[in-house]
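Person: I keep going back and forth on a fold encoding question. Show me how you would write down a chain together with its backbone fold. Please set it down just below, with no commentary around it:
Helper:
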Amino acid sequence: MSRSPTLPLRCRWQCAFLRCKSYLLNKIANDLFLEAELMMLAFATGIMDVVTFPDYRVFASNQTGNTALLAVGALGIGGDIISLQHVGVSLGFFAAGGLLSGQLGNLFGCQRRSWLFVTNLVQTALVFGAAVLHAHTDQRPNEAMDLVIIGLLASASGGQVAVARTVHIPEVTTAMVTSAYIDFLVDPKVLRLNNRPRNRRLVFVCCLILGSFVGAIAYIYVNPGFALYISALGKLLVCVALLFNPGRKSSAVDCDTTDLPHTIVAIHR
């Protein structure tokens, strides 16, 4: 009885590498799993803005509000309550984060698992960094450090919204809810039982509101830094989950063939 030849160890390692590479470069499916991750990001966003507004009179992600506050701060309407510097830093770093994340996503593949994992990991690190710095400034108030915290959170928010807009679930921006409110209200199918876009908008708004309340409770009964840690942990959970998202159909690497070396060469080409 003939036995199939054993693959050389080098070929086995190459095959394992190609399988891993194929998995990471595969585009993730647009399904309920991805929707749940975006809802978690919306929850984390609600927490962030609850911290930044009471402490710095500025939003990390709600740039519609910041755009209005820009005029308030520039003309001194709010006196010392609204800082033009804080608003400018938030707007600028949000735009920078969105630009960088969006354009790099266009370059590397905005729906690829590897890109989504890396960009979300960077955003999570920014929020964790802001939480650590916030704990330090609680003891020693420092205006320069406040600007760094605002910049970190705004950059993370800009990158997050850019990613959310490129995964083709337009109802969930993870941050701004004005359009979600209006789209919900004007939806001609709003009363239909099966209406996925309406359901997405409704759950998105609820997650953002829930995150706001959770952040406010943590802010009041523990401290603002603790609230930011909760937000960062939520984003970290999404990072890990992205590694397990179902992928779209792709050609599998077959390691059970005697022609594996030729297959590997062909794939590399």
